[in-house]
């Protein structure tokens, strides 16, 4: 008897506003796989800490929030924006928080396969994933995208402040001791600075086909 192949997992990592979320959703739809924005887990954890008037850098408060997460927390409408961004990055640097959420993410991917996007999917959550993409773009372009996104939501935003906050998030993510934001050694790097959503998707699908070959789902 031949053992069946494990469910397909595609890891999509990268910094804020590089386009990884939009891309991961489209890849999931094209491949017929569930999609998980793992950043929402950390955003929801950070928001729970803020709700309790605690510091997102407090390990005890952050771990308690992570272990208390419910599906309803992931559906909140206040998980985006500068305050939520920095809170998410702060709780994500706490080992106990990452441990609390790691099994949840792995169970989701192993159940039926999945496309997961985040910052440590290919390095920590699914290092064995057959397809790993690291999606990036220049800081200036990412700040421009985030500014337009905030404008579209009717939020007041200053371009210089948006860039400063994005750079602060980059530094916090890349310098943390636990699961820093770095490409997996075997990840395909996709720079979307000069690409629109359609071109980025086409380039990503080409990389997926290259990695999977004849095993690509029909």
From TrEMBL:
| Enzyme Commission number | 2.7.4.25
Task: Name the source's superkingdom.
Answer: Bacteria
Q: Which SUPFAM superfamilies match?
A: P-loop containing nucleoside triphosphate hydrolases
Q: Which Gene3D superfamilies match?
A: P-loop containing nucleotide triphosphate hydrolases (3.40.50.300)
Q: Pfam families of this UniProt entry?
A: Cytidylate_kin
* Amino acids binding ATP: 14-22
User: Cytidylate kinase domain spans which residues?
Assistant: 10-208
Catalysis: reaction(s)? CMP + ATP = CDP + ADP; dCMP + ATP = dCDP + ADP
Gene name of the record: cmk
**Main localization, broad class:** cytoplasm
Q: Does the record carry Transferase as a key word? A: yes
Q: Which family does it belong to?
A: Belongs to the cytidylate kinase family. Type 1 subfamily.
Gene Ontology MF terms: kinase activity
Q: What class of enzyme is it?
A: transferase
Location comes to: Cytoplasm
What is this protein called in UniProt?
Answer: Cytidylate kinase
């Amino acid at each position: 008897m031949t053992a069946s192949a494990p469910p397909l997992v595609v890891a999509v990592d990268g910094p804020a506003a590089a386009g990884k979320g939009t891309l991961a959703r489209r890849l999931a739809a094209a491949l017929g796989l569930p999609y998980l924005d793992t950043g929402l887990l950390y955003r929801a954890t950070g928001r729970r800490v803020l709700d309790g008037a605690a510091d997102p850098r407090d390990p005890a408060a952050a771990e308690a929030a992570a272990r208390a997460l419910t599906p309803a927390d992931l559906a909140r409408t206040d998980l985006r924006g500068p305050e939520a961004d920095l809170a998410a990055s702060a709780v994500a640097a706490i080992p106990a928080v990452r441990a609390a959420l790691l099994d949840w993410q792995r169970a989701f991917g192993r159940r039926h396969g999945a496309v997961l996007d985040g910052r440590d999917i290919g390095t920590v959550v699914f290092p064995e994933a057959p397809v790993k993409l690291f999606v990036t773009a220049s800081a200036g372009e990412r700040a421009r995208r985030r500014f337009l996104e905030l404008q579209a939501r009717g939020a007041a935003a200053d371009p210089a402040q948006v860039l400063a906050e994005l750079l602060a998030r980059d530094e916090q993510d890349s310098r943390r001791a636990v699961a820093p934001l770095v490409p997996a050694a075997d990840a395909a790097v996709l720079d979307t600075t000069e690409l629109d959503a359609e071109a980025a998707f086409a380039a990503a699908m080409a990389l997926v086909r290259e990695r999977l070959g004849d095993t690509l789902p029909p």
